[in-house]
Amino acid sequence: MVISSKQAEEEAVLETARAMCAAARTAPRTRGLDYLKTCIVTGDQKERLAEKMEALAEETGMDFLRRDAGNVRNSAAVVLMGHPDIVRGLNEGCQYCGFKNCKECVEKGGRCAYISIDIGIALGSAISVAADRRIDNRVMFSIGRAAMELDFFEQEVCQAFGIPLSATGKSPYFDRK
Question: What is the dotted CATH code of the domain comprising 16-85+114-166?
Fold first, then answer.
């Protein structure tokens, strides 16, 4: 059997994407509570994601969304991570959200600070897997924003990020214009 380099590289990217989701799942989180949502996007859904990013560029005037959509297209796969809007219930003992307690945070439309902490730790664990396997990657909020609008997650999330993955001669995620 002969496996072409293209096939081997695509399989390596998908294996890495799966391992990244596992690493994100097992990453430490605040209070040991696991609400993280992950998924992997390829093929037609990846193109749909890029198209949504271009539409958002038009709507918002943020041209970097169009550039990032090109990065999605030039990727073999994209790992998505999101977190639902859930408070941790630490109340007056915390106040990291800027409110008196969790009830006030929710009533005033705030966001529990631990959401960002948990997803940041999970992202770090995931990208370390990609780096260890020498798969090019970059964390992008722009991808997460489009993914949230497309309802790619099994449940509504309030914060999301995307990590495009590539195994090519030069990383498409740097020296960007």
Answer: 3.40.109.10
- Cβ burial, residue 13 (10 Å; 0-12/13-18/19+): buried
Secondary structure (3-state) at 100: coil
pLDDT band per the 50, 70, 90 thresholds, residue 175:
confident
166: left (phi over 0), alpha (psi -120 to 50) or beta: beta
Determine the pLDDT at residue 33: 87
Above 90 in pLDDT, residue 67? yes
Sorted by where each begins, the domain ranges of the chain are 16-85+114-166
Q: Which token pair is 7?
A: 């096939």
Give the position of tokens 């960002």.
Answer: 116
Q: pTM value?
A: 0.94
Instruction: Sort residue 29 into left (φ over 0), alpha (ψ -120 to 50) or beta.
Output: beta
Kindly state the tokens that stand for 6.
């293209």
